[in-house]
Fold this sequence. Notes:
The protein is α/β, with parallel strands linked by helices. The protein has helices at 10-15, 50-60, 110-128, 137-142, 163-173, 189-201, 204-211, 225-232, 263-276, 280-284, 307-310, 384-387, 390-403, and strands spanning 23-25, 28-33, 39-44, 67-73, 84-91, 94-101, 144-146, 180-185, 214-219, 237-241, 332-338, 361-365, 368-371, 378-381, 427-432, 437-441, 453-459, 471-473, 479-483, 492-501, 509-518. The chain has an eight-stranded mixed beta sheet with strand order 7-4-3-8-9-10-12-11, sandwiched between helices. A six-stranded mixed beta sheet has the order 1-2-15-21-20-17. Helix 6 (189-201) runs parallel beside helix 8 (225-232). The longest helix is centred in the N-terminal third of the chain and has 19 residues, at 110-128. The protein starts with 9 loop residues before the first helix and ends with a strand.
Amino acid sequence: MSLKPSHINVLLFSSLCAGLLLSCSSEGNFRVDNVPNSRVIVLTDMLNEPDDSQTMVRLLMYANRMDIEGLIAVSSCHQYLGKKDFLPVLKEGKVVTVDTVVQERNGVHPQEINKRIEAYAKVLENLKKHEGGWPTPEYLSSRVGSGPAGYGMDDVGVGKSTTGSLLIEEAILKEDERPLYICINAGANTLAQALLDLQSKTNSLELKELLKKIRVYDDAGQDNAGAWIAKTFPTIHYQRSQKQVFNFMNDKGPKVWDDAEYAGKGQHLWAKRNVQTNHGPLGELYPTRMRWNRPDLFHTLEGGGTSTWIGHVNQGLYVPEEITWGGWGGRFSAEKHKNVLADQLRWADLVETENQYKPFFMYVEVADKWTDKATGSTYNDIGTPIYRWREAYQNDFEARMDWCIAPYEKANHNPVATVNGDASDGIIYYAVESKMELEFDASISKDPDDDDLQFNWYYYPEAGTYGNQVTLLNSNTSKATLKVPFDASGSQIHIILEVKDKSAIVPLFDYRRIVVNVLGS
């Protein structure tokens, strides 16, 4: 289970200062914790519509930032074997609806994952010129599997194991102390099958220990298996986003795409220029996405699937075990909520299929309030915890697509944010008394392309427990000062450093999170 900020024992933290893991500064007890690469499994309903195919291209562009242990083609409420579709199509310039069974779409499609891995293989040598750690295509291919083709729990049971469920089972049983993050961008029945099989092979104590490894991030609930999992295994870490995930590239929040009459078209123009054309064979497999009910209009990019895994690629900002802290993949509640009903089931008239598993409990998305300095616009809604980072994650993807074809000197690379001499991607922790002043120095931050840098330090109130305003001096320079409030005893304050380069190619970012634990009186 994810630790709540209130669970952090700052007194224990302070006592460790004499140990080898911590150094002491005149400004308070100080340490840096590096977050290891995450173990990630992604479940995807490829070919349901183009959004998951788009997401898979972006995912492979970050294959060196995570340890991918499964890429599994699964069904969902939108795409299962035998599902009857009312399919809008263009006919003589008009949208008409065709009542049909689309067999070539409704099922599971691991071949679509493999197509993109084959394209990744063709750009791999160029990617290596820009950054290390890329997995081999052979390894990625060995991690591809399939789930059952039917809907939800109707296709789960004894003797129904699949290549996908066996991959999940293997990853859970693997002797690795790191958690296993299961990112569900479709139905959850492949995970349900793996858990059912493990339950039959282990005793209750063994299963309890295995369940402690699992962290589930569910994109809006796309079958009834998520409810079954949460009901059957109530201790499992299960978070479900109903709306927040869809704010990754929707028509809300800051606009970072081409100017056009509507967001979908502007995003398509952006993708056509920066991904689909003149960026190698992997970019060519980034499909165009049209609106499901209006195939004459462009839809916004990537739906919600990217949100479930994108946080793991930004280690200086994001701590996967701290779901209340936020990052590129959004922010979640500290407590589970009751009966978090799958939002997507209503689109498929399958809402009632979850009712039999009530009550069940899951972590839920929460809102942020944020002002975009570029425009002065203030946002305060459920989508803000994701789209507040939109310029950074979109620029990052654009630069990485350049890496597919460009030599090192013709592409841009992320700056390296250094705080008080530490240039790692670790999270910086302080344990201090109230009314102290903390000095933060990022002046020796560097850029691998020798671009000039700009600095932005800011307070992230929702991530901590203090909540009131804090004084942060010189927040737009390389050196900033935090005045720890006199009434902050026993609370936690989060400061984010954002370093942005001034590249003419595409500006890129690096982040560092500073967590200030204020000791109690």
